[in-house]
Structures are given as structure tokens and as C-alpha cells.
Design a protein that fits this description.
This protein has about 160 residues and is of the alpha/beta class. The chain has one domain: Phosphotransferase system, sorbose subfamily IIB component (Fructose Permease), CATH 3.40.35. Helices cover about 40% and strands about 20% of the residues. The chain contains 7 helices and 7 strands, in the order E-H-E-H-H-E-H-E-H-E-H-E-E-H. Strands 3-2-4-1-5-6-7 form a 7-stranded mixed beta sheet, with helices on both faces. It is globular and about 40 Å long.
Length: about 160
């Protein structure tokens, strides 16, 4: 398995993933690493409906995802998607260290007072910032970018400037 993109997006699979990131990366599969979705058949069915035709969908928990990425000898391209920075941190702790993680959307409930607007699609909590910093401290670059072609930001620098780390 060749990881073409590792993305943090609280929406998991949605229009931007389907129309731009899959095309940009030429991924043949989407691996959703999410404990909740892996145990919920309804969520899996909804993710299948959102997944483009011809793209394989894999929905598993963190340990299984890390194992698949490390041990799958096939050379097809995959896009890894997690729901939040805590999930990306967990995969990193389990040994998955992509070239970088792209933070594409962390908004949660926009009315949550614990969130600080950094970019229109980046409204992290202090815990999100802590998790992103831990990933960077583990040697994995973390960027913020909503769609291909849009400016890519150093996520740690943004969080430092915002006073979150």
C-alpha cells in the first residue's frame, strides 16, 4: 500500500475528497481510520455511498489501519483519512509516519467556545493543537490545506501564531 495522502478531516469522505483530492493523488483506495465508524454499520454504509465509484473503501480502527499500512505489500495508492488530530496522533504513535499530515477541516461545532478560528476550515481546540504538536515532535510535518492548489500552511506555525501552542 502506497500512501498518497494522509488527511485530517472531521467530515471524513465528502465533496472535496471525492472531487479534488482523489484526482490530485490518483489514489485507488480510501482508508478511513476511525474507531467509531469501524464499529458502526450505518456509518460504513454512509461512507460507501460517499465513496466514488471505482475507489476501494476500507474502514477500520487505528491498530488495524496501522497494520495494513505497514504490512500490505500491494503498490496501489491509498488516501488515509482520520476524523481529528487525536486520531492522526494515535496512528503516528502506532508507527504510521507519512511524509506529512494534511489538516483539511477541523471545525467540530463552530459554536463551541473552546475552539479558536485560525483559518476558515481550521478551528482547533487546545487538545487539537496539543495533538498536532505531538505529531510534529514525532518528526512528521503537519500542514493545513483545504483543497489542492490552495496555499499550504505550516500548521504548527499557525497554531503558535494563534497562541495555541
Amino acid at each position: 500500500m502506497v500512501v498518497k495522502e494522509a488527511r485530517v478531516d472531521d467530515r471524513l469522505i465528502h465533496g472535496q475528497v471525492v472531487t479534488t483530492w482523489i484526482q490530485q493523488t490518483q489514489a485507488k483506495a480510501i482508508l478511513v481510520a476511525d474507531e467509531e465508524a469501524a464499529k458502526d454499520e450505518f456509518q460504513k454504509d454512509m461512507l460507501k455511498l460517499a465513496c466514488p465509484a471505482g475507489i476501494q473503501l476500507i474502514v477500520v480502527g487505528f491498530e488495524k489501519a496501522a497494520s495494513l499500512i505497514a504490512q500490505d505489500p500491494t503498490q496501489y495508492g491509498v488516501m488515509v483519512i482520520v476524523r481529528n488530530p487525536a486520531a492522526a496522533r494515535r496512528l503516528t504513535e502506532l508507527g504510521f509516519k507519512p511524509d506529512h499530515w494534511t489538516v483539511g477541516n477541523i471545525t467540530g461545532r463552530k459554536t463551541d467556545l473552546a475552539r479558536k478560528k485560525v483559518l476558515k476550515y481550521l478551528l482547533p481546540t487546545a487538545k487539537d493543537a496539543e495533538d498536532i504538536k505531538a505529531i510534529a515532535d514525532a518528526g512528521v510535518k503537519v500542514t493545513a490545506q483545504s483543497v489542492p492548489g490552495e496555499k499550504q500552511y505550516d500548521c504548527v506555525a499557525l497554531l503558535e501564531k494563534a497562541g495555541l501552542i
